[in-house]
Every structure is written in C-alpha cells, then in structure tokens.
Specification:
The protein is of the alpha+beta class. It is built from 4 helices and 3 strands, in the order ααβββαα. The chain has a 3-stranded antiparallel sheet. A hairpin with a 2-residue loop joins β2 and β3. α1 runs antiparallel to α2. The longest helix has 17 residues. The chain is globular and about 45 Å long. The model has no long low-confidence stretch (mean pLDDT 93).
Length: 90
C-alpha cells in the first residue's frame, strides 16, 4: 500500500475513532492502519491537525519530516456516512 493511501485511510478512520470513542471497531481499525504506517512505511512520528478546509498530516520517516494535506470534506465522508446510518449514527 502506498504511503499516501495508507495515510488517507488512517486519517479517515482516526476521525471516526476520535468522534466515537466507544466504537471499539473504529478504535481497532485506526490502530491497524497506524501499525501499517509504522511497520510498512517506518513512520516514527505522526501528527494530525486541521483547519476549515484541510487536514495536515506531518510525519517523520528515515529521519526526514514530511507533510501531506488532505481535503477535509473527503476525510470526513466516512464519519458523515456512519452518522447518517440509523444503526450506527447514535
């Protein structure tokens, strides 16, 4: 899995896990994607911030710090879908 894909997947589920702290499946899935980033891509540090339009992911790998930005609406689409689903949105 390419690092951009792994970062985006992690970010989407992290947003869900943060919004739903009692959702065990979301927590476990976020941990799984974090482990992919750490094991497959050797991420040493990972920091996520956001503003009105973008998520900013700063990470360190191989001693180099890099940053990727992702559209906030795209990142939050999974959370919005879960919240719209009556079985999960409570």
């Amino acid at each position: 899995m390419k690092i951009d894909t792994a970062l985006f997947d992690y970010l989407q589920i992290k947003v869900v896990a943060d919004a739903r702290p009692d959702d065990t499946a979301a927590q476990q899935t976020a941990d799984f994607f974090r482990s992919i980033l750490e094991q497959d891509h050797q991420l040493e540090k990972l920091d996520v911030t956001h503003d009105e339009t973008m998520y900013h992911v700063t990470y360190t790998t191989a001693g180099k710090t890099k940053m990727r930005m992702y559209d906030r609406e795209s990142v939050e689409v999974m959370l919005a879908a879960i919240e719209r689903e009556p079985r999960y949105g409570q």
